[in-house]
């Protein structure tokens, strides 16, 4: 009889580790109070799925995600990925910044050992907690042979999503996560793990994490925005700005002028869309004497910010080379 796959669970807190004194409430609770050992003990079916090893990497509400914890996660994934007989890695995470962490790991953790994120929309003490099944399904996927080489994945609500594509689209529903353009890459039903397609856009090599993270902020275009925020950020020395633009990357004229001035001063400017789905067209919006504003493609502003930070950290000169920066976004 063959051994069960060895799966490592890295816990970071979040709603999946949350608790409340009122089991009937799924909205009023304290995140990140239940240790990973208790989460695993609450799912005895795991014993029939994998040999589990657990590590409490952090215990936070993911709204407070930090660059330091991102770096720690990448380091722990790298450590466990080369250990003998490790079939896969599961990371439990809060939902608030899950899509950003998924993008970060997508770019920084490139290998064949599956890295599977999971989370919950309801705390562990809820009458209808979704965390236990999500955790069980994530372990099933992480230990499955077909998950190898498919990049960072998110398993939630019986669906498998590519980490690059998955976004949160609802404040409370258990089906809050979706991949707006691509759809799920597969699904989990009991012990059946099925991949319907191979995730697209898998990076050929990992982007290194910076020792000092460049400051990249997000600004939004809407009816008659002032330029004060862009001007203040440029004076503060930001390295890059991602614009949550209207529609297909449209930016109000007053904001365009402020962004053009920032770009001329060496700030990288990337256009995304605030709509939640779709591709920002190229060629991008012209800017005076500075070439073009870079298109984020189909990345939302939050995922685009992650890529821009890593790209600028690796190659600071990209801030003054829109064409080269556009190629980075086109390839990721």
Automatic annotation (TrEMBL):
Pfam families: Asparaginase, Asparaginase_C. Gene3D superfamilies: 3.40.50.40, L-asparaginase, N-terminal domain (3.40.50.1170). The keyword Hydrolase applies. InterPro entries: AsnASE_II (IPR004550), Asp/glu_Ase-like_sf (IPR036152), Asparaginase/glutaminase-like (IPR006034), Asparaginase/glutaminase_AS1 (IPR020827), Asparaginase/glutaminase_AS2 (IPR027475), Asparaginase_C (IPR040919), L-asparaginase_C (IPR027473), L-asparaginase_N (IPR027474). Residues 6-196 form the L-asparaginase N-terminal domain. Signal peptide: none annotated. It comes from the Bacteria. The active site is at 15, 95. Keywords: Hydrolase. Residues 215-316 form the Asparaginase/glutaminase C-terminal domain. PANTHER family: 60 KDA LYSOPHOSPHOLIPASE, L-ASPARAGINASE. Belongs to the asparaginase 1 family. This is Asparaginase. The lineage of its organism: Bacteria, Pseudomonadati, Pseudomonadota, Betaproteobacteria, Burkholderiales.
């Amino acid at each position: 009889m063959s051994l069960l796959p060895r799966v490592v669970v890295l816990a970071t807190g979040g709603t999946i580790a949350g608790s409340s004194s009122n089991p009937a409430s799924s909205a009023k609770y304290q995140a990140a109070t239940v240790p990973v050992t208790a989460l695993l003990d609450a799912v005895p079916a795991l014993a029939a799925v994998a040999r589990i090893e657990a590590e409490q990497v952090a215990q936070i509400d993911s709204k407070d995600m930090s660059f330091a914890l991102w770096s720690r996660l990448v380091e722990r994934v790298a450590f466990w990925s080369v250990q003998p007989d490790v079939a896969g890695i599961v990371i439990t995470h809060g939902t608030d910044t899950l899509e950003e962490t998924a993008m970060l790991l997508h770019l920084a953790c490139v290998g064949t050992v599956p890295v599977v994120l999971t989370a919950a929309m309801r705390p562990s003490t809820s009458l209808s907690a979704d965390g236990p099944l999500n955790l069980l399904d994530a372990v099933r996927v992480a230990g499955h042979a077909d998950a190898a080489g498919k990049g960072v994945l998110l398993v939630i609500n019986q669906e498998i999503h590519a980490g690059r594509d998955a976004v949160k689209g609802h404040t409370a529903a258990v089906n809050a996560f979706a991949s707006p353009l691509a759809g799920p890459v597969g699904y989990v039903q009991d012990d059946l793990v099925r991949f319907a397609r191979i995730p697209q856009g898998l990076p050929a090599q990992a982007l290194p994490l910076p020792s000092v993270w460049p400051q990249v902020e997000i600004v939004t275009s809407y009816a008659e925005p002032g330029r004060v925020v862009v001007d203040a950020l440029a004076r503060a020395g930001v390295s890059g700005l991602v614009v949550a633009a209207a529609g297909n990357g449209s930016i109000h004229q007053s904001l365009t002028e402020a962004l053009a001035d920032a770009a001329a001063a060496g700030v990288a400017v990337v256009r995304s869309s605030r709509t939640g789905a779709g591709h920002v067209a190229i060629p991008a919006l012209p800017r005076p004497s500075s070439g073009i504003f870079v298109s984020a493609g189909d990345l939302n502003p939050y995922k685009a910010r992650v890529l821009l930070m890593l790209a600028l950290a690796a190659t600071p000169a990209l801030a003054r080379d829109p064409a080269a920066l556009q190629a980075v976004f086109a390839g990721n």
